[in-house]
Structure formats: C-alpha cells, structure tokens
C-alpha cells in the first residue's frame, strides 16, 4: 500500500509548480548510504515501479559517506524542481544534533511519503545487571569517561 501511495505522491508532487508535463526528463532518487543497504533496496524497488508508471527513467544515485551527510547535503543543494528526491532514514533529523550542518532538516526538506519503518531496539543479555533503560543510563553515566 505504501508503494502505491509513494507513486501517486511522486506523480502529483510537482504538478502545481511545473509549467510543462512532468516529468520531462529522468528523475533521480539520492540514497545517502552505500548500495545494497535497506534504503538502497527500497529506492531501487520504487524506481522500477516509478519508471514503468511515469514512462521516464528514475535513477538511484548512491552518495554514501559521513553517516549519510554527503547524500543529504547533495540533496539539499539540488535544484528544487521536482526531479531530485531522497530516500533517507532518521539520520536526516539526528545528524544535525551530532554535526554542524549547512541545512535545516525541517525547513529545507519536504517529506513526500513515509515508505517504511525501521524500529530500533536496545537489547542486553538476559543475565545482565541492566534490566531497564533507566539502569542502562545510570550505568553509562557511571562509566562515562569523556
């Protein structure tokens, strides 16, 4: 269902801003991670269906490195013409808290569609002394060396 929503959103997204029929040329989906990862696989599946639906090439371009920052910055600097999209994970909003960024993830990007979820889980051995997140935080604070 999410793939169909994504295709519909992609087909409608630039319609109000474009003066000619969209798309007139190939579309690029930037993946800010290495080829073969989860985001890349999703982008390639989507690009196949979009290419068929739109009758134009939808290319996946991996711009890996710096924890996703290289691809994110490339997307931020791309022309805002409806021909460059990005498939990204939570690093889009997490990285600005870790690194000084030349973009604001909330002002400089427009979400088009949520195409998937990848929940994170914290686990420990069953015989560990840590049984709760509060205990994990306390242990981390106790052993913090920086």
Global geometry? elongated
The CATH topology corresponds to D-Maltodextrin-Binding Protein, domain 2
CATH homologous superfamily assignment:
Bordetella uptake gene, domain 1
> Which architecture does the CATH hierarchy give at level 2?
3-Layer(aba) Sandwich
Instruction: Supply the number of structural domains.
Output: 1
Q: Tally of extended strands?
A: 3
Overall CATH class: Alpha Beta
Unreliable runs, pLDDT <50, ≥5 residues?
A: none
Rounded Rg: 19 Å
Which sequence of SSEs, written as H and E, runs from N to C?
HEHEHEHH
The largest pleated sheet is described as: 3 strands, parallel
Structural class: mainly alpha
Give the overall average pLDDT. Answer: 87
Approximately how much helix is present in the residues? 25-40%
- Give the N-terminus to C-terminus distance in angstroms: 46 Å
């Amino acid at each position: 269902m999410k793939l169909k929503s994504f295709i519909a959103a992609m087909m409608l997204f630039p319609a109000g801003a474009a003066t000619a029929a969209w798309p007139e040329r190939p579309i690029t989906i930037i993946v800010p991670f290495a080829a073969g990862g989860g985001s890349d696989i999703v982008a390639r599946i989507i690009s196949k269906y979009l290419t068929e639906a739109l009758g134009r090439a939808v290319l996946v371009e991996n711009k890996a490195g710096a924890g996703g920052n290289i691809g994110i910055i490339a997307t931020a600097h791309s022309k805002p013409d409806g021909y460059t999209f990005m498939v990204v994970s939570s690093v889009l909003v997490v990285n600005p808290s870790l690194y000084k960024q030349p973009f604001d993830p909330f002002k400089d990007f427009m979400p088009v569609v949520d195409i998937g979820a990848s929940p994170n889980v914290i686990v420990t051995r069953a015989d560990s002394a840590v049984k709760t997140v509060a205990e994990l935080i306390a242990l981390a604070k106790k052993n913090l060396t920086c």
